[in-house]
From TrEMBL:
GO terms for cellular component: plasma membrane. This is Probable membrane transporter protein. Its main location: membrane. It comes from Candidatus Acidulodesulfobacterium ferriphilum. The keyword Cell membrane applies. Keywords: Cell membrane, Membrane, Transmembrane, Transmembrane helix. The keyword Secreted does not apply. Belongs to the 4-toluene sulfonate uptake permease (TSUP) (TC 2.A.102) family. It holds the Pfam family TauE.
Length: 296
């Protein structure tokens, strides 16, 4: 009995530390943390793909909730951008979550590894090719405020967002349709392998759309709080005995919420370009490590 309690305590502590790290990394570089969690569940805890993805999405949801509250207070969430991403990402995560129950563990390891490496490469290439970000955009392409109902179709939505500390961001949302498409893809990948949407959507927003990373990451994290909950519930619906997974939620949730506050603070005080470089490099290294483990 004593040995069983000690083993459970070790598992709880390991889960807490892992979720703490995930919360910090996810809210700092806007990747949600699933890229870390799913490999941990698969390779260390030997859970099934369905269980790993479901637990990961629930942890991302808790982590994102903590970060969202801070970003909401800081007034760094763009409502227009929020709606553009939320609806297609929600549709994608539902489809991906339903299809994830058909993949085997060995196949899942390889698919996850290549997707993670692909996201990392996309992030680094986009960072390298991105033109220097400027705070002045031409009114020639900005949609007039009186045509609010047409802006979502025409693109070039001129935005001015003032953070609670007085920092002002002037930028444009250039292609709402492209954001919709990338959000749909990111949502599908999120539901299928249990990672956040930040690796794909965040990179596209900051590199291609040239939206300030502070605004992009804050908005994405707040969206993940909703869609990860939906995806997690779908995964748990297909798990034969979901109740035995409930014991993992407490340490994962405590670690994720604590880490999210630390990560949000780091994000607030870090330079945009550094955040993007860290994101891409970190993701690629993790993907390579997973490939090596899958080959063993």
């Amino acid at each position: 009995m004593h040995m069983h309690f000690l083993n459970l305590l070790i598992v709880y502590f390991t889960l807490f530390i892992t979720a703490l790290f995930v919360g910090i990394v996810g809210n700092t570089i806007g990747i949600g943390g699933g890229i870390l969690l799913v490999p941990f569940f698969i390779f260390y805890m030997h859970l099934s793909p369905l269980e790993s993805s479901g637990l990961s999405l629930f942890t991302i949801m808790l982590s994102a909730m903590g970060g969202s509250y801070i970003f909401y207070k800081d007034k760094t969430i763009d409502l227009n951008l929020y709606l553009m991403i939320l609806l297609p990402a929600l549709f994608g995560i539902i489809i991906g979550s339903v299809l994830s129950r058909y993949i085997l563990t060995d196949q899942f390891k390889w698919v996850l590894s290549f997707i993670i490496i692909g996201i990392g490469i996309f992030s680094l290439i986009a960072t390298k090719k991105q033109a220097a970000y400027k705070n002045n955009y031409s009114d020639k392409y900005a949609a007039p405020l009186k045509n609010r109902h047409r802006r979502f179709l025409r693109g070039h939505i001129r935005k001015t967002l003032k953070e609670s500390n007085g920092t002002t961001y002037d930028y444009e949302i250039k292609s709402p349709l492209s954001i919709n498409i990338f959000s749909l893809i990111a949502g599908f990948v999120s539901g299928f392998i249990g990672i956040g949407i930040g690796g794909i959507t965040g990179t596209f927003l900051t590199a291609v759309e040239q939206i300030p990373p502070r605004i992009a990451f804050s908005t994405i994290i707040s969206i993940m709080a909703i869609i990860s909950l939906i995806g997690g519930l779908i995964h748990f619906y297909y798990i034969k005995n979901p109740l035995h997974m409930a014991i993992y939620i407490i340490p994962l949730g405590a670690g994720a919420l604590t880490g999210s506050k630390i990560g949000a603070f780091i994000s607030k005080n870090s330079k945009a370009k550094i955040l993007r470089i860290y994101q891409g490099t970190f993701i690629i290294l993790l993907g390579v490590l997973m490939l090596a483990l899958s080959a063993l």
